[in-house]
Every structure is written in C-alpha cells, then in structure tokens.
Write a structure and sequence with these properties.
The complex is a heterodimer of chains A (262) and B (240).
Chain A lengths: L15 H4 L2 H16 L4 H18 L3 H7 L1 H17 L4 E5 L2 E4 H25 L4 H10 L4 H30 L10 H31 L18 H27 L1
Antiparallel strand pairs in A: 1-2
Chain B lengths: L10 H23 L5 H19 L3 E4 L2 E4 L3 H8 L3 H16 L7 H34 L14 H33 L7 H10 L1 H21 L13
Antiparallel strand pairs in B: 1-2
Classes of the chains: A mainly alpha (262), B mainly alpha (240).
Chain lengths: 262, 240
C-alpha cells in the first residue's frame, strides 16, 4: 500500500562519492544537474547522460536500487517520447494514416528524455550515498533557513512512523472486509477519507507530545550546532568538486564555442 | 504526475517558479517570525509532524480505471494549515524529489508554486465559503454565535456546509494545480506550442484524480470537524 522511502539504504557502502564531503557533494552536483537540464544540443545531452552515468557508476550503487528509483521519471517522460514526434512540425519520417512522425519531434522528444534521465541519474549519487540526516545537516551548514532545515528533519523522521501507523489502520480495515476496487464507490472513497482523517488526528496529537518531549529536553526552536559528526573539506573533496563543476561548465562552454564557430 | 520532472521546462519557467516559491516562502517565514518569541519552538514540531502525515497520505494509491492515482491533498493542506501550507508543500515536494525521484530537483520551485498557490487559493475559497454560510445562517436565525472562529464548528448542518466547501476546496486545489502545471508546460514549449499536446494529455489524465480527491477531501474535512475541529484552520491562524 505505502512504501518506505529508503533512499539511504546503501549509504554505508564505500566509494569515492560516498567519501565526498556532503556539502561539496550537494553544491557540485546541483551545478551539474542545472547544467544538464538546460543543454539544448542532442549530442551534448548525450554526453551529459554518459558523464552522469559515469558518476553513478563511481558511486557503486546497486543496479536494482537505481532502476527502482528512475521508475517515476519514466512515467512522466514516456508521454513526451510518444506524443512529441507526432505533434512537432518538421520533416516527415513516415506517415501512418493521419499520424505524421517528424524528425524534429523525435529529436526533441529524445532530448527531453536524455536531460530528464541525466538529472535523475545525478540525484542518486547525491542523496543515496550519504545518510539522510547528514544530508540535512549539510544543508544546515550551507545556510538553508533554520525553519526549513528543522521541518525537513522532523518530517523525514515522522514519515517512517506514519507509514507504519497507516499500514496498521489499513490492515485493520482490510481485516473487516474493506477492499478498494478498480472503480471505487463513493462509500469506499469516503471510508479512505476517514482513514486519512484518523491519520491526521493521530499525527496532530503526536505532534503535541513530540513538542512537549522536546521542550522538556531543552528544545527552543533555535539552531542547535551540536552534532556528532563534523564535516571537514580535504584536498580530494576540492578536486572532485572542481571536476564535477568543470564538467557542468564544459557542457555549456562547448555549445557556446560551437555557436561562435558556425 | 503534477510533479514535473527535470529536463522538460525552459529556463524562464524554471526561474519564475523559483522566484514565486522564494517570495512565498519568505512571506511564510516572515509571518512565523512575527508570531513572537517561542513560536518556532512550539509550531515547528507540530507543523512538521503534520507535513509528514500529509506526505504519507499522498503515497496512498487509489486504483482508477486502468491506472492508479495518488492523492495530492494540497487543498486539505491549505484548509488545515493556512499560509503555512506553502512551506509544508515545499518540504513535501522536496522530499518527493529526493526520496522517490518523483518530480525533479530543478523543478522544485515551479512544482511547489503550482501546488502551493492552488492550495492557498483553495484555502481562501474554503474560509470565504464558511464565513458566507455562517453569516447567512446568523442573519436568518437572528442570534449571535459567540464561541468558535469558524461557523463550521457548530451544528450538523454547518458541518455539512463545511464538508461541501471542503470538497470544493479539495477538488479546486487539484484542478488549479493541474491547470498551472499545464500552463507551465505550454509556456515552456514556446510559440510553436511544442508541449501543448502533452500538456493537454496530462490534464485529461488528471480528471479522475480531481473527482476522487473532491470526495476524499470532503469526507476528511467532515471527519476532522467531528473529531478534532481545532485542526481545521488552527495552525496558521496566528496566536491562539
């Protein structure tokens, strides 16, 4: 029914990307993601995807984990691949009754898909190679506003609690004979609404208790700099960051040079 | 699928999305700063716990015909959290992108804007609707209702009214989010209308989700009013 968001399942592996300083990792890969997403040329987008795959390979994340995580992007991108070739005007490749497939449309569809997959392939080395609490801590060190960092931290922590809680509610409903069919009735949907309502009421009351527990331990809502792990940039972190940002800049510098040359 | 993934949108649309999100987040942060000392300590844990609950609720899949839909619940967020729905949706979109790769990183700005602005508008419709209904009833009955900030906290009938406006807000929020998403795709396609067909296809695919969410949010609002009325519009209403 609901799945666990186990993004950092493989953060205990060892690879150059795992050892990369989390702050530098976030900044450098963000640069690269913005870079590949804005590439306009098909060949450069392909180069971008190859480079992204190289970074993913360097992170040594298991293939099954990776394929699970690029599932959603495919849901979004496949309509573009299917529709764009037939709707963009341009040179005709072939005609099937009223449907015209154009070269320009196909090229644009593939470009969109390449950029989308490059980006998602780059997200994984960032978030899947560091424990998520350390990623949040890195965001804090990168001066993300305190309220957002704290919300991120608490929300992430309680997602797991509520997944378990909702599964329990759902199992209780199913034990009483409730089943969602392919075309849910009004009654079934209202029952789902009540199950969700229960989740919200319970979470609201839990929030109250969480606040009291935190308060009695001295929580004041302000930035708390005490952490068990401290980050330290080393020479190899700088080198890897320069490599990644350099690749990001190169993807756009090349097209700029080409445009000048032609 | 209202979560646009990376690599589709053009630079101006991405930038506009980040600008809108930046401004609205700043407004929400400024608003929470104005609530005075100790507000953050009190509200951040509560708000975050609710954000987590909404995140989990949005993972629930409902089978609709051949596909399955998952809830957006941005309307419900607007109804329960008020202006704080915007940071909550931002965190939700960020976590969706980071934990499930559902929606892109560069598009966090525009996705938050599409869903968040829709949520704020839906919340305004809900509040306005409840106030209007209450005003009308008070006029008819000719008596003052001294306690309760929402008219919806009273009798069975007013719960029904709140349920109807809750359903309306739930459906409207998804509808607006879909419209905003389609518009951002169409604007990205430029003058040739490259993405128009895809945007329309995505919009049509969302019609069942709008219907499902209308019913579900309506029933959640009625349930909350019966069980925990302070949850409807309590957070994000300022000092209690």
């Amino acid at each position: 029914m609901v799945e666990y968001p186990e993004i950092d399942l493989f953060s205990s592996l060892d690879s150059p990307i795992h050892r990369f300083d989390p702050r530098a990792k976030i900044v450098a890969f963000l640069c690269l993601i913005f870079s590949v997403v804005l590439v306009q040329d098909l060949r450069l987008a392909f180069a971008g995807l190859l480079g992204s795959l190289a970074f993913l390979a360097a992170s040594r994340l298991p293939l099954r984990f990776v394929s699970q995580h690029i599932k959603w992007v495919s849901f979004f991108i496949v309509p573009f691949l299917l529709i764009l070739p037939f709707t963009v005007k341009g040179d005709e490749i072939f005609r099937f009754y009223a449907l015209k497939m154009t070269y320009e449309g196909l090229e644009y569809g593939v470009l969109v898909a390449l950029r989308a997959y490059s980006a998602v392939v780059l997200v994984l080395p960032v978030v899947a190679t560091t424990r998520f609490d350390l990623t949040i801590k890195a965001l804090d060190r990168l001066k993300v506003p305190n309220m957002l960092v704290q919300m991120l931290m608490f929300s992430y922590r309680y997602i797991f609690v509520f997944v378990v809680e909702f599964q329990r509610t759902w199992r209780a409903m199913e034990a009483r004979g409730f089943k969602l069919r392919t075309s849910p009735s009004l009654y079934a949907l209202r029952t789902v609404g009540k199950a969700l309502g229960t989740l919200f009421v319970r979470s609201y009351e839990r929030g109250e208790r969480v606040y009291q527990a935190l308060r009695s331990r001295g929580y004041t809502g302000t930035r708390n700099p005490k952490t068990l792990v401290e980050f330290k940039m080393q020479a190899r972190d700088y080198a890897l960051a320069v490599l990644i940002v350099g690749f990001a800049v190169a993807l756009h510098a090349v097209s700029f040079v080409f445009a000048r040359g032609v | 699928m209202v979560h646009i993934s990376d690599g589709v949108l053009s630079l101006p649309v991405l930038a506009a999305g980040w600008a809108v999100t930046g401004v609205l987040l700043a407004v929400a942060l400024w608003w929470s700063k104005r609530q005075g000392e100790g507000w953050e300590a009190e509200e951040i844990p509560r708000l975050s716990v609710m954000t987590a609950a909404f995140f989990v609720a949005s993972l629930v899949h409902v089978p609709v015909g051949p596909t399955s839909a998952h809830f957006l619940l941005n309307g419900l967020l607007g109804v329960t959290l008020g202006i704080l729905a915007y940071p909550a949706i931002f965190i939700g979109v960020l976590l969706q992108a980071v934990l499930f790769q559902h929606g892109g990183i560069t598009t966090i700005g525009i996705n938050t804007a599409n869903m968040g602005v829709a949520a704020l508008l839906a919340s305004a419709v809900f509040k306005g609707g409840c106030r209007l209904a209450r005003g009308r009833r008070e006029g008819r009955e000719g008596r003052e209702r001294s306690e309760g900030s929402e008219g919806s906290k009273g009798s069975e009938g007013s719960k029904g009214v709140a349920g109807i406006f809750g359903a309306l807000a739930g459906g409207l929020a998804v509808f607006l989010a879909v419209v905003f998403t389609a518009v951002s795709l169409i604007l990205s396609g430029g003058e040739e209308g490259t993405f128009t067909a895809v945007a329309l296809a995505l919009a049509v695919a969302h019609v069942p989700i709008i219907l499902v969410e209308t019913v579900v949010v309506g029933s959640v609002v009625v349930f909350l009013l019966k069980v925990k009325p302070e949850l409807v519009g309590s957070l994000g209403e300022g000092k209690r």
